[in-house]
């Protein structure tokens, strides 16, 4: 009788453990199916993005080609113009141009056209007389006097 009671208790405990495992399995199963639907949604979003990109690519490529051709024209134009500038001046220009979008400014009312620092009268007269290009002592851009 005692053995039968012990056996029954063991069966009960095993049943409880199995029930716990089953509910854990059910939870895991739900989680997996949630993850699977997340994957499906992500794949759909990816396909949509790829489709969108496919449509945009030829347009971007055409724009890029147009820009490349514009840049080549500008380079050609620049090389033509640079031919008449002395090498040291061209070097100065390129150095300044590497740091800012514009390197050359006209004097504006006796001051630097970029930073408004006054240029001494003597230098201004020199620039106006010889057409020489000077470096602004304050901001470092090239300055010329407008004829
Ligand atoms: Zn300046």
Number of strands: 3
Beta-sheet strand percentage? 5-15%
- Major beta sheet, specifics? 3 strands, mixed
- For the CA atoms, what is the radius of gyration? 39 Å
Q: How many domains make up the 3D coordinates? A: 2
Assign a percent range to the helix content: 55-70%
Strand order of the largest sheet: 1-3-2
- Along the chain, the helix and strand elements come as HHEHEE
Walkthrough of the structure:
- This protein has 147 residues and is mainly alpha-helical.
- The chain has 2 domains: 1-84; 86-147, no CATH class.
- Helix content is 69%, strand content 5%.
- The protein has helices spanning 2-82, 87-97, 121-130; strands at residues 104-106, 134-135, 142-144.
- The longest helix has 81 residues, at 2-82.
- The model has no long low-confidence stretch (mean pLDDT 94).
- The structure holds zinc ion.
- Zinc ion binds next to loops.
- Zinc ion is lined by residues 112, 114-115, 117, 136, 138-139, 141.
Short key terms for the protein model shown above:
147 residues, mainly alpha, 2 domains, three-stranded mixed sheet, 3 helices, 3 strands, elongated, binds zinc ion
């Amino acid at each position: 009788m005692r053995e039968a009671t012990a056996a029954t208790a063991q069966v009960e405990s095993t049943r409880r453990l199995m029930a716990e495992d089953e509910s854990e399995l059910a939870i895991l199963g739900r989680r997996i199916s949630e993850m699977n639907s997340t994957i499906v949604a992500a794949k759909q979003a990816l396909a949509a993005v790829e489709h969108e990109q496919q449509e945009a690519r030829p347009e971007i490529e055409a724009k890029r080609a147009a820009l490349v051709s514009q840049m080549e024209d500008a380079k050609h134009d620049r090389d033509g113009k640079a031919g008449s500038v002395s090498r040291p001046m061209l070097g100065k220009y390129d150095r300044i141009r590497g740091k800012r979008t514009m390197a050359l400014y006209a004097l504006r009312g006796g001051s630097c056209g970029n930073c408004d620092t006054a240029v001494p009268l003597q230098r201004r007269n020199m620039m106006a007389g010889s057409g020489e290009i000077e470096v602004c002592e304050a901001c470092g851009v090239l300055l010329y006097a407008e004829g």
